[in-house]
């Protein structure tokens, strides 16, 4: 049975990756890699929220023994601070969950883990649910809790530009992410909305992006925190624009699980949603320095002052505003996918097919 599930997951995600690659035709870009990540992530790095062990089966936060949830995060970024706070401050533990985390370095890898049964919950781009649904396989992925409600990447410039406007990117080269990835597609969408024609470079691996920028491969780069603050503080780059601010409300990353897992473990899903909500509330009531201290164990080698700067940048964006992925935000997502060519207009997916807002609605009543 496990071999059959793994095979189905591999086939579905291979198709997902092919669809994502098709999106590069919608932008001026080079052919790209199928991996994504940040310079701060570590593929396969495992972290547990407490010392309990066991397999995730069934139960709730009220059970005496914690339930293990195998969790796959898409990349390691300050953008996902609530998840680290939930682990470090014990909110998962309060809900009776023992979280075992790995960093997948890509939504496609995280989706594969869910479909193969090697992960229970994944933090990925909601577009993966759309791709998988359109493959008409035996399994679907559903969003049950939105973590970030806008894009979290920033455009940095090699030279200081006073009063930057998006027109300053006209004819310029921008080091971006792999074709079909959420940041690359949102950047393409923003550029088109602004009427800007730029050369979006997508064939540089995540670990090599900063080095390529510093060596003069391009005058602009699209990065997440804390990499953005690291480059700015080192004098290697200057802040230009927020990709998220340009697009507004956009469901960049969300917690997902297979439909069968959600159906079989509704209390675990509710407990997870509760813990993340507690973490976002905790962040709202604490200073950036306190949040930085809480997430510091997940960013070895990065100073607390730099982490605090990253937190402030995301707080200014209201990045963790609501756990509910709304129908209007989902409509924007599909508009971006269609513009980038990773979804056909005839393939538009109904909201309820890939989104289950009931768990997030329970905590916001």
UniProtKB/TrEMBL annotation:
Residues 1-22 form the signal peptide. One of its GO terms (cellular component) is periplasmic space. Its main location: periplasm. It is found in: Periplasm. It comes from Alicyclobacillus ferrooxydans. The keyword Ribosomal protein does not apply. This is ABC transporter substrate-binding protein. Residues 27-65 are annotated as: Disordered. Keywords: Signal.
């Amino acid at each position: 049975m496990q071999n059959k599930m793994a095979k189905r997951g591999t086939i579905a995600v291979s198709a997902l990756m092919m669809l994502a690659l098709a999106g590069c035709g919608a932008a001026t870009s080079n052919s790209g890699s199928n991996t994504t990540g940040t310079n701060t992530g570590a593929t396969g790095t495992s972290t547990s929220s407490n010392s309990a062990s066991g397999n995730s089966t069934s139960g709730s936060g009220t059970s005496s023994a914690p339930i293990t949830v195998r969790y796959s995060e898409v990349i390691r970024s300050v953008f996902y601070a609530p998840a680290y706070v939930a682990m470090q401050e014990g909110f998962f533990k309060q809900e009776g969950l023992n979280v075992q985390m790995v960093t997948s370095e890509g939504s496609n890898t995280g989706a594969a883990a869910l479909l193969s049964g090697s992960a229970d919950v994944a933090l990925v781009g909601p577009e993966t649910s759309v791709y998988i649904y359109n493959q008409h396989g035996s399994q679907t992925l559903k969003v049950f809790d939105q973590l970030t409600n806008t894009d979290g990447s920033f455009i940095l410039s090699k030279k200081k530009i006073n009063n930057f406007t998006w027109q300053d990117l006209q004819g310029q080269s921008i080091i971006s992410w792999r074709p079909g990835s959420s940041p690359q597609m949102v950047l393409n969408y923003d550029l088109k909305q602004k009427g800007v024609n730029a050369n979006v470079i997508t064939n540089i691996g995540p670990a090599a992006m900063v080095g390529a920028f510093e060596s003069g491969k391009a005058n602009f780069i699209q990065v997440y925190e804390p990499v953005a603050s690291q480059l700015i503080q080192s004098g290697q780059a200057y802040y230009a624009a927020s990709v998220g601010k340009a697009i507004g409300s956009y469901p960049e990353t969300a917690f997902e699980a297979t439909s069968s897992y959600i159906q079989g473990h509704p209390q675990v899903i509710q407990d997870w949603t509760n813990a993340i909500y507690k973490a976002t509330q905790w962040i709202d009531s604490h200073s950036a320095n306190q949040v930085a201290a809480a997430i510091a164990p997940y960013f070895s080698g990065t100073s607390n002052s730099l982490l605090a700067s990253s937190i402030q940048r995301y707080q200014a964006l209201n990045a963790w505003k609501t756990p509910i992925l709304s129908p209007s935000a989902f409509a924007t997502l599909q508009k971006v996918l269609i513009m980038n060519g990773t979804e056909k207009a005839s393939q538009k997916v109904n909201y309820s097919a890939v989104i289950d807002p009931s768990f997030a609605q329970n905590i916001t009543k």
